[in-house]
Amino acid sequence: MDPKMIIQAAAVVALASLVFAIIRRQFIYRQDQGTDEMKKLAGAIQDGAMAFLKKEYSWLCVFVSIVAVALYVGLGEEGQGPSTAACFIYGAVSSALAGFIGMRVATRSAVRTTEAAKTSLGKALTVAFSSGAVMGFTVVGLGLLGVSILTWYFQPAAGSGASSTDWIKPIFGFSFGASSIALFARVGGGIFTKAADVGADLVGKVESNMPEDDPRNPATIADNVGDNVGDVAGMGADLFESYVGAIIASMALGLTTVGAGGNTTVAFYPVALATIGIIASMIGTFVVRTNDESKISSVLTRGLLVASAIFVGGTIALAMIPEIATELATAASAKGLWGITGVWAVTGAVWVGLLLGLLIGHITEYYTSEEKKPARQIAEQSETGTATNIIHGLAVGMESCAAPMVLIAFGTLAAYHLAGIYGVAIAAVGMLSTLGISLGVDAYGPVADNAGGLAEMSDCEPEVRQRTDKLDAVGNTTAAIGKGFAIGSAALTALALFFTYREEIKAAKGVEDFPIDLLNPNVIVGLFLGGTCAFLFSSMTMKAVGRAAQKMITEVRRQLPGILSGENEPDPGTCVAISTEAALREMILPGVLAVAVPVAVGYLLGPAALGGLLAGALVTGVLFAIFMANSGGAWDNAKKYIESGVHGGKGSAAHKASVVGDTVGDPFKDTSGPSLNILVKLMCIVALVFVPLFV
Asked: Which residue among 148, 409, 583, 613 is least enclosed by CB atoms within 10 Å?
């Protein structure tokens, strides 16, 4: 099959995905925004979010410019430097644009969700999920379109005599640009939202016995702004770079390890999978609807399962095409797992990735949902105080690492035995295949959360807040599942990039093999340094939240006496400014660490040491990310469970202990944890892009 046909089909479907996102956006904008008070509050959140994003992107323009120049010069003005630099800028712009669009729609959807909740739960669900779908389909549309355009441009014509593998190397820059923006978006957004959240909770809830989202709390608006810049723009950029990274890495492996340097279907099979995944995700969105509050979670899950089933059917259809079947058979090992060979071995590796993503999501739900045992045990421990709440929450987070890592380990093994290292890479694509709807389910959460806050601040009828609380409760779980999914996809994507790095080193050195040997002292040094990076990075981001939270707490304490006495009105603008300044200042050093360390290790200690660094960062980073994300989610939902009326309910000693636990968990789950999975991928792609400097 002509690879250009696959690329053309992918471009058409990517454009269709963007059109689908526009249609969903227009549906949202046609909905009623409610009362003038609701519009005013929503406008403040919108203005704060957009102001932060504009400032963040202006800072990132400087970073992108510096790195682009470094790529231009470092990789050779006459070689790959200009092309890689251009692709880097394209990836950065695409990632930033996806985050901008998603957050812009999300900030306008929350007030419409609140107004829809006055009518019915089902209508509110439709509006909130539509906002998430805009984010999801914008991400996959821009990602696949970018890969398609660059592949069409750089792929050499048949018989041109150009190297059939070198053409893909500049496209690594596209992934590099996406990863860079993702890291800053996650770190900066996470610092912003958690500084505001900690200030609002500790001073408002614990010290002043104020309800959540009380309009008198000056940090409430900043907290709602943070939900959007962190969990919408940040999560979108995070999964955008996973998506394009997995596709590009598997394409490269298809060319270098399977295709023997030829432009075969093997190399473009990941693009075909992404194309089918978008179509499947579009269809899956139409089953996400209900008026039964007890079935919100199940209908969201149903949408994912329908999309997954359609995707599986699409892969079977691909496997039945004789030309594709013949060419994919070369990608399988001589004897696959359980005797499976040929095209079904490759297809099986895709299914392994898809199943792995679904299972990790279910495990995450178990450890974080307020309906499950772990979160309820933390709530029970809150009756004896803050210390026991924190101890049990930490233990739950540590325990939650075991099952996902076992799944990732055996999933990797299964994919490898089916189709070698290409199988591992293609499993990552399989896991991310239905990202359009899975990201939609995740991004729905912050919209539901903001809708509840607006209902509280605008004094809506109690049944409105009850409906938004139902949406928010499910949203907390879907957000936690989204983080688990992001971490799982990061592990497989980083593995694919790691294998690609080794293949590029082999090609650059002109050798048959390049072992990364644990008996090599340089590799051991790299392992230690890589493992250390995860801890150092987490320390930086946690301290950043703490410093920003201190300023926020001081400001809220300054304002509250006058607000409660009726002498002054809340000044949310000052709180937004505190979070903005802290986020922009504190995000720089962690971002520089992620880029500078791989370059320094590779240049000073050599490519083998850099391989050790990547391996150490991968294992430690993934484990630490799972631990932090799940413990934070469990603490959050333990608090929500107590607020439902158990263990004394709101205002009780157990509730105050759970609020402190949730506060500790906030930077875990929304700043450091989610940022770690980007760190491990960014370090891999930096190593891959700068290979010519290390050989």
From this structure: 409
Distance CA 464, CA 691 (A): 56
CA–CA distance, 244 with 146 (Å, rounded to integer): 9
Identify the three-state secondary structure at position 236. helix
Give CA angle at 135 (132, 138), nearest 5°: 145
User: Are 63 and 198 within 8 A, CB to CB?
Assistant: no
Residue with tokens 């441009």: 153
The pTM score is 0.88
Sign of CA dihedral 92, 172, 619, 540: negative
Residue with structure tokens 């890689």?
A: 84
Residue 460's nearest CA partner among 228, 204, 117 is 117
**Which string of DSSP letters, residue by residue, matches 564-614?**
HTTSS---HHHHHHHHHHHHHHHTHHHHHHHHHHHHHHHHHH-HHHHHHHH
Residues 483, 487, 490, 491: what is their CA dihedral angle, to the nearest 10 degrees?
A: -170
What is the rounded CA–CA span in Å between residue 203 and residue 192? 17
Distance CA 319, CA 326 (A): 9
pLDDT band at 159 (very low <50, low <70, confident <90, very high): very low
Mean pLDDT of 642-651: 88
Q: At what angle do helices 373-381 and 653-667 cross, to 10 degrees?
A: 120
pLDDT surpassing 80 at residue 158? no
C-alpha distance from residue 242 to each of 101, 106, 180, 424 (Å): 18, 22, 12, 14
> Is the pLDDT confidence value at 291 over 90?
no
The number of C-alpha atoms within 13 Å of 598 and in the hemisphere containing its C-beta is 26
Q: How many CB atoms lie within 10 A of CB 66?
A: 10
Residues 6+ positions from 337 with CB-CB distance below 8 Å: 345, 348, 414, 417, 418
Phi-psi region of 335 (alpha: psi -120 to 50; beta: other; left: phi over 0): beta
Whole-angstrom distance, CA of residue 597 vs CA of residue 495: 19
Our measurement of the distance from residue 357's CA atom to the centroid of its chain's CA atoms, rounded to an integer in Å, reads 13
Positive or negative, the Cα torsion across 600, 603, 606, 608? Answer: positive
